[in-house]
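SAMPLE LOG
Freezer: B-3
Tube label: C17
Construct: single chain, 174 aa
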Amino acid sequence: MQIRSIHFKALASAALANPTLQANLHKFGTGGLALLRARAVEAYGRDAFEELRLAGEAIRNRALANLDVWLERFEAEATRRGATVLWARNAEEAQALVLDICRRYGLKKAIKSKSMVSEEVGLNEALVADGVTPIETDLAEYIIQLAQEPLLGIQANETVLDTVCRFCFEKKKI
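STRUCTURE (predicted):
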């Protein structure tokens, strides 16, 4: 298992050296959130926009300050609705919980959605080591998984497309 967050600087340096990703980030910075922000400021005025931004920041900070309460509330509500919530203190416990479920039901494949949590705890690697094939539900993420490329969290579409094309042409000879 590899905790990727401890390698953030190296991963960030590699991403910064990726010309496709840099081009996409430039487009995003000049057209994505920056454009949406400019439109909101124009539509509602700078003062109203700043007031809303500060209100959002306060909500986020309040939620983070009381995260334990919110998590317990989520668990209670999810349990009330029939879900089972599992808690893990670390990556090894998280892996063990998932692998226990796989073993209990004799699973050979695990259909899963990509999440940074599963990436951080090395879930795919643990599943494979235990004889369970993880299959991503998102096609681009699945191809990135097949290409054995690391997930980077929020990825620019062209970066994903570049990986998909490279995988298809180089690895699978399509």
